[in-house]
Specification:
Layout: H1 7-23, H2 28-34, H3 41-47, H4 66-79, H5 81-101, H6 104-115, E1 121-124, E2 140-144, E3 147-158, E4 165-171, H7 174-178, E5 185-191, E6 197-201, E7 213-224, E8 228-229, H8 235-271, E9 273-274, E10 277-278, H9 283-312, H10 317-342, H11 353-363, H12 370-382
Parallel strand pairs: 1-4
Antiparallel strand pairs: 2-3, 3-7, 4-5, 5-8, 6-7, 9-10
Helix pairs in contact: 1-4, 4-5, 4-8, 5-6, 5-8, 8-9, 8-10, 8-11, 9-10, 10-11, 10-12
């Protein structure tokens, strides 16, 4: 086993760390207060070649491995969750799915400009009345000649109001819809420019206030049949694939948030004094800091294992689910303890731990709630769920030229 980052990993770490410090941190406090998505964030990430980080050079990407994606997510979320969310959605949910399921036409038209940062991709599964219950979605796609007519509403969509392309999931078989048979769901690539597509932003969120979250309305949107991703009825499987990639990025990002909580708490505990000593000398403060250090260590090992599996081209459903569950759980604990270490000051936005506390909660909900991940791990342990040993849909790294 080799637990050292390669030179490529260290270069990605340095790149994303410096980018976030220079481009995210300066205006973060004001953007978070104003629920404002920084207009220069996406162009800046494109210029830095971050938006195509682990996509093949053939399509204009940087050609890095999957661990590099995790490293980038950890570094970006160390500064703010809103920056990591961009990679989770643009790369994890959308671009890696195009790489895995798209045909040559779709990769050339959509994946290539996304890998180069010229276009931004997003993901539209969740609806006002359907989240974890995927077959509860109501959106429909009715075939009409060489087009599909899409109608529906998508809610809680990251980058909804700033993305160019969306992966939209809708029922193409209404009989299966009535039977709640997931084999009736199909995936489509929908452009913002298509008539009938409107989007908006959601404000008043608990956390990730500097990130764009919104809704997508589809009213008689005509989508060319050539924009169907995969096969008819394959949408549910594609959605599960998308979410697995998202979970991987969330796990790595949450690990970065734990580290941010740890560093902020260590700094504060060394300078704040009570009862004639620095608070870092009190045993119970030490315990909270120790828990953060341990949480960061094993959360990182879990997402690294999932990333290693991906690099081999092996399935990592179980490993990714576990990494997401544990990292998010530990991030919530670390953020709560960081506020506690800071005392009353932690309850105000004078210190960043207040923001960490708010941001940590969302990750335990999106990309599959903590309850779903818990049940998955229990089912694996009890032998009630057994994944077929197979190569995963993602190509192994280094990428073969024909990927």
């Amino acid at each position: 086993m080799n637990f050292e980052f390669s030179e490529d990993h260290l270069s990605v770490q340095k790149l994303c760390r410096e980018f976030a410090i220079k481009n995210v941190a300066p205006d973060l406090r004001e953007n978070d207060r104003a629920h404002k998505f920084a207009s220069g964030l996406l162009p800046g990430m494109a210029k830095a070649d971050i938006l195509g980080l682990c996509l093949p050079e053939k399509y204009g990407g940087a050609g890095m491995d999957y661990i590099s994606l995790g490293v980038a997510c950890e570094e970006l979320e160390y500064v703010d969750t809103s920056a990591r969310v961009v990679l989770s959605v643009h790369i994890g949910l959308n671009s890696l799915t195009l790489l895995s399921y798209g045909n040559d036409f779709q990769k050339e038209k959509y994946l290539k400009p996304q890998a180069q940062g010229e276009k931004i991709g997003s993901f539209g599964l969740t609806e006002p009345d359907a989240g974890s219950d995927v077959v509860g979605i109501r959106s429909t796609a009715i075939r009409k000649g060489n087009k599909y007519i899409l109608n529906g509403e998508k809610m809680w969509i990251s980058l909804a109001h700033v993305a160019d392309n969306f992966l939209i999931f809708a029922w193409t078989d209404l009989e299966k819809k009535n039977q709640r048979d997931h084999r009736g769901i199909t995936t489509f690539i929908v452009e913002r420019s298509f008539p009938g597509v409107t989007t908006g932003s959601i404000e008043g969120k608990l956390g990730v206030r500097a990130g764009n979250t919104g809704w997508i309305s589809l009213q008689d949107v005509e989508v060319p049949a050539e924009n169907m991703l995969g096969q008819v009825g394959e949408g549910f499987g594609i959605a599960m694939f998308c979410l697995e990639q998202g979970r991987y990025t969330v796990a790595a990002g949450s690990t970065g948030l734990i580290r941010a909580c740890l560093d902020a708490s260590v700094l504060y505990s060394r300078t704040r004094k009570s009862f004639g000593m620095s608070i870092g000398e009190h045993q119970l403060v030490k315990q909270m800091i120790a828990n953060m250090a341990a949480g960061h260590e094993y959360s990182r090992l879990l997402w690294l294992k999932a990333g290693w599996q991906r690099n081999q081209g092996n399935r990592s459903t179980r490993e990714t689910s576990l990494a997401k569950w544990i990292a998010c759980r530990e991030a919530e604990k670390a953020a709560a303890d960081a506020v506690q270490v800071h005392g009353a000051y932690g309850f105000s936005d004078e210190y960043p731990v207040e923001r960490y506390y708010r941001n940590a909660k969302g990750a335990s909900i999106y990309e599959g709630t903590r309850e779903i991940q818990t049940l998955m791990q229990a089912d694996y342990a009890l032998g009630l769920r057994k994944d077929k040993p197979r190569r995963c849909n993602l190509p192994p790294w280094p990428f073969p030229e024909n990927v």
